[in-house]
């Protein structure tokens, strides 16, 4: 049986060398695109996967400074704040997405969950209902809405 270190790919490089090369190229890509909203979003995702939430938050905030309508970055940032137990910031970010994209069901759903955790049943029910109305096939929203009834 061959060990993985003897398997060659990419012009004879070992898998370990190929991975290191790909990792270096990816870091160069991130650095090269750091002055764009999408590049900062990529950096944030990379830092999040490396379990660096503070760096991820900083990169998402920078992404939003470049493009205030990057609601994908805003939703990810809100979720990071939610994970960090910074409920007020998370709620403000979800509210901003709702103002910019009122038909997007996801921020309503997340606010429904957030208010449920805070014990604010009426607000939770309202947001889960709105999420269900905006996306009829969002079974998680329906399920959580039904639990609140």
UniProtKB/TrEMBL annotation:
The keyword Repeat applies. SUPFAM superfamilies: TPR-like. It holds the Pfam family TPR_19. PANTHER family: LIPOPOLYSACCHARIDE ASSEMBLY PROTEIN B (PTHR45586:SF1), TPR REPEAT-CONTAINING PROTEIN PA4667 (PTHR45586). It comes from the Bacteria. Keywords: Repeat, TPR repeat. The keyword Repeat applies. This is Tetratricopeptide repeat protein. TPR repeats lie at residues 71-104, 105-138.
